[in-house]
Amino acid sequence: MAAELFEIDHLYRYDELTETIHALANVFPELVAISEIGRSHEGRSIWLATVTNTATGDAATKPAVWVDANIHSVEITGSMAALHLLRSLVSRRDETEIAHVLATRTFYIVPRLNPDGAELALADNPTYLRSGVRLSRNVANGVGWVPGDVDGDGRVLDIRVVDPNGAWKVSDLDERIMVPRQPEDIGDGPWYRIIDEGSYHDADESRLELKKAVDPRNLDFNRHFPYGWHGESEQKGAGRAPGVEPEIRALMDAVLARPNICVYLAHHTFSAAILRPYDDKPDTAFPGDDLRRYKAITQKGTDLTGYRGVSVFHDFGYDTDKPISGAADCWAYDHLGVYGFTTEFWSPIAQSGITDYHLTGWMEDHPVEDEVTLLKWNDEALDGKGFAPWTKFEHPQLGSVEIGGWDRFRCWENAPDHLIEAEVAPHTDWEIWLALTTPLLRVRDTVVEPLGDGLVSVSCVVENAGYFPTSVTEQAVKRSLVDPVTVGLTIDDHSVLVSGLPVQELGQLDGAERVRNPMSWAGRDHDYSTDRAVARWVLRVEPGAEITIAASHQRAGSVTTTVTAG
Questions:
Q1: What is the spatial distance between Cα 201 and Cα 528, in angstroms, rounded to a whole number?
Q2: From CA 541, how far away is CA 545, in angstroms rounded?
Q3: How far apart are CA 139 and CA 212, in angstroms?
Q4: Where are the alpha helices (H) located in 125-213, listed in sequence order?
Q5: Which contiguous run of DSSP H or E holds residue 17?
Q6: Where do runs of H (alpha helix) occur along 342-441?
Q7: Are the C-beta atoms of 512 and 523 separated by less than 8 Å?
Q8: What's the confidence (pLDDT) of residue 368?
Q9: SS3 for 66?
Q10: 394: which DSSP letter?
Q11: Which of 111, 133, 513, 515 could in theory staple to 82 by disulfide, Cβ–Cβ 3.0 to 4.6 A?
Q12: Alpha carbon 357 to chain centroid, angstroms
C-alpha cells in the first residue's frame, strides 16, 4: 500500500504511528518533514510533522496552523484525526485548494503529545490514566481497589455484585441497565454495588471496604499551561508548576519557537464539540472583534462537521464554582494572541440520535430512556460490541460477581474502529479552511521610475492577501505580541540609497475580513486601503542594477521580489 494511503481504521500504538509518519516523510520529503520536539517522561520521542510545499518556500516563512493531539492518555481518536489531516494534505496535494494551502501555508502536526499514557491505554492489559505516567504524589502506590482487566478479555468494564445495602437495581426497561434505588425500593432487592472491574491491591483483602486506590500518576497535562494556572489544591492534576512536565515543556517550546503560528488546535475526546476560550471568563472579557471572529470560525466548524461550537465558560464547565483553567487553548489565545480551539471528537450520545443534552451535565443526570436509546444504537450500529452483557465471573477476592457494561475506552472515549475515519474526516476540511483564514503578505505594483542624473524612484505596495489581519487577533495588539509589517531593500555595492529608510515599518494590515455587509457602518471600506501600504525609496543606481524588495511579518509570512533599474 502506498505510504500516503495508510488506513484510519484502528487506534495506532506508538511504534506504528512512528513508522507511519516517517514512511510518509521518506516518500514525500518535499512536503513532509519529521522532527523530535522533545521526549516523554519514559523517553519516547514526541514527533512533529511539518507539512508545506518546500518548493515555494521554507515552512518558517509562511503563516501556520498548529495541531496537537492525545494530551490525555485515553483520547486517541484525536491522534487519528491528526493522522487523517496529515494523510489528506499529502494524498490530496493536487487538488486546487490543497495545492494552494501547501504552497502558501504551513501545518505543524503533533499526532501524539503523550505517548507514555497512550501506550498504557493501548496495552493488551490496559491502564487508563488521565495523562502521563510520572509519579506526582507521595502516596502508597495502588493500595486499595485498582481498576484493571481481571477476566482477560482486554477490556476494563464494570463489576456488579449483589449487596443488601447496594444503591443500584436493574431497570424495568432493560435488564442491562442499572438505575439508582429510590426511597420506595425496600425489601430484599436484589440490590447491587457497581465498581470498576479490577481487584484489591492491599495487605488485608478480607476487609469489606471498597476504597479506590489513589494512583500517584494523577497529572492532568491540560491544566499545566501558564494561563490561569492554579495549584493542586485548587485545580486537580495541575502539578508542581506550569510547563514543568517534559511533554508540556516540549509543546510550549516548539510553539514559541514558531512565531508564524496563527491558529492553535488541540484534539481531545469526547463530546462532539468545538470549544473556544475563555475557560474562566465570560465572553465580555474579549475584545469585540476577537469574539466576533471566534464565533464566525466556530460556526464554520459547525457547518462543516455538525459539532456544536461553544464557549467553555458558558457551555462546557463541570463546576460553576470552579471553572476550568490552565488549558492549552486559553494559553494560545491569551498569552500568544492566536485563535485557540479544542475539538472534542466523538459522542455516542449524539450518535445514538439524542440531540437535546448538555455537553457535560448529561453524564451526571439524564433520563433512563436515554440509556435505552443508547443500547438500541449499540445493538444496531455496533452489532452489540459496545456494551458487554453482564456475565458471571468468580472473582478471586469478591467471589461470585458479574462483569459487563459499556466498553468506555473503545466506545465512549474513542470512536469504534470502523467509525473513526467518518468521524474525523470533516474536521480535516475545517482545519484546511482555517489555514485559509490566516494573513498572507504579498508585494505588488512595484514601480521603478527614472528621475534623471542616475536617480530612480522605487515604490511598491505591500498588502495582506489573507483573510484575518496580520496581527491575527486584537489580543496580540493589546499585549504587544506582534511586530509591524516591515519592508526593506537590498542593493548592490554600486548603488546608493538617497532617501527613505532601508527598512520601513508599515504597521498591521487588515485582511479581507474587514468588510462584512454593505449596509454595516463597521464593516465597509471607509478607509479603502487598510489592507495595504506603500513603501518608497530614491536610489542612485547604474542601469541594469538589480533591486530586491523583501516584506515580512512574523505571522503573515515573508515574500521577496526583484526588479531591474532601467
A1: 72
A2: 6
A3: 13
A4: none
A5: helix 14-27
A6: 348-351, 368-381, 420-437
A7: no
A8: 95
A9: strand
A10: E
A11: 111
A12: 23
